[in-house]
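Predict structure. Input: Trichome birefringence-like N-terminal domain-containing protein, 403 residues.
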Amino acid sequence: MGWRNNIRCRDIRARCSLTVPVLFAALLFLWILDQSYIHSGTLFKREFYSTLFQSSYRGTPTEGSDWRASSMPKNCDIFSGEWVYDDNLPLYSSCKFAERGFLCHRNGRPDLAYQKWRWRPHGCALPRFDALDMLNRLNGSRVVFVGDSMGRTQWESLCCILLQAVADKSSAKLIHGPISKVTPFLRARFLTNNLSVDYYRSPFLVAGGSDVPARSPKRVVGTLKLEKMGRIGANWHKADILIINTGHWWTSTKTYDRGVYFEMGKQLMRGMKVDAAHLRALKTVTSWVSDNVDFNRTQVFFRSFEPSHWTMAFSRLPLNSSTYRMVYPHAQHLFEALELNSSPAMLLNVTALSSYRPDGHVFNYTRSSVPLDCAHWCLPGVPDTWNQLMYYSLLIRAKGPWA
Ligand SMILES: *[C@@H]1O[C@H](CO)[C@@H](O)[C@H](O)[C@H]1NC(C)=O
Ligand SMILES: *[C@@H]1O[C@H](CO)[C@@H](O)[C@H](O)[C@H]1NC(C)=O
Ligand SMILES: *[C@@H]1O[C@H](CO)[C@@H](O)[C@H](O)[C@H]1NC(C)=O
Ligand SMILES: *[C@@H]1O[C@H](CO)[C@@H](O)[C@H](O)[C@H]1NC(C)=O
Ligand SMILES: *[C@@H]1O[C@H](CO)[C@@H](O)[C@H](O)[C@H]1NC(C)=O
Ligand SMILES: *[C@@H]1O[C@H](CO)[C@@H](O)[C@H](O)[C@H]1NC(C)=O
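Output follows.
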């Protein structure tokens, strides 16, 4: 964990307080400059401003003012874009469905800018996000998340976003809990809309157990059956919307080092690379979904890997999406598995957009004894965007209540 030692925490606030008069003069100058170049289409301007004047910048008022879902652009890659500062964010402040460990501000994080970045695709303007519209379209539905703790975070985020749209907050309830990292099943009910939002914990998705093949070495305490879907599948395949994710547990620390090996055809796969196992498991999951989920009833999403930033200096700002490039093998496995499987499942391709957000992690603003967390995300924050992009994806596909 070299992160803390390498900390190059760019403390903008401290610098600002020393240079307020200078900045003020610069602001005045830039404003005059801006007025004279107002039609010159300098895209760079917005980024430049948002970097300098974090709390004073407001999102362009014209953009996103069209609320009609019918104005959804149909042929737009909404996952390719950039983060723009938007003072209208976050979508919620306090929320009973967010676990304390992810409430960074409440846990002492002083800067708030990380809550205020809106994702803007390169190729199109999205209508403004409308939580009430989302809630109404979900009327009578069952939304199911299944996966690791990142799936739980997304569940928390969606519940919080929808809660904002509910007039009587007490009508939305946690039916199964508590919200913790070991609870296998969570359910929130939105009574006014007859809506359930569920989360099933299944970090690997495939079946696992301590029934190891005969004559396995003693160090093998359990196996992951790469060709077999986890039992939990029976519980969620009849959802209206299903969001599946995995990735963070496919490491040797979380498998081999714990005595968990891989198994195929009742054979112990000694020496199998974790990456290869991950890919094999994803193939099992995508083909299980194709064979068992009724796509007329269920809209299926696979959410891609959301990168950690353990090796990066802490930053209070997003990275520049036009210059930052990184390859995430974990994400490639999902892309590959989905390509082989021609099901109508949708991809929530959040890898790149999340990779630009080292500022969005929990860092040390949590409750547990973990000294630093550069994997999980603060709420409100980046996971809210995953849910917003899910909403837009549903509108673009325009099936059933989403037409
Ligand atoms: C991001 O990088 C591009 C290309 O180098 C540059 O033009 C732009 O000004 C950068 N944006 C910010 C906010 O630094
Ligand atoms: C996911 O999004 C990134 C960024 O736009 C893009 O480079 C990549 O090709 C996308 N992957 C897939 C499978 O769509
Ligand atoms: C949602 O469904 C309930 C019945 O379950 C109905 O009373 C209500 O009018 C519906 N709301 C919307 C916005 O469709
Ligand atoms: C609630 O939704 C379920 C389907 O999810 C439906 O079977 C049931 O009739 C609905 N209840 C009401 C009161 O609308
Ligand atoms: C899904 O809907 C299509 C068109 O309505 C229909 O042809 C198909 O049989 C349905 N599939 C299932 C599994 O019900
Ligand atoms: C987190 O780390 C920062 C910078 O190292 C430090 O100033 C702050 O006190 C720490 N916060 C907590 C809650 O430990």
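The longest helix spans residues 274-292.
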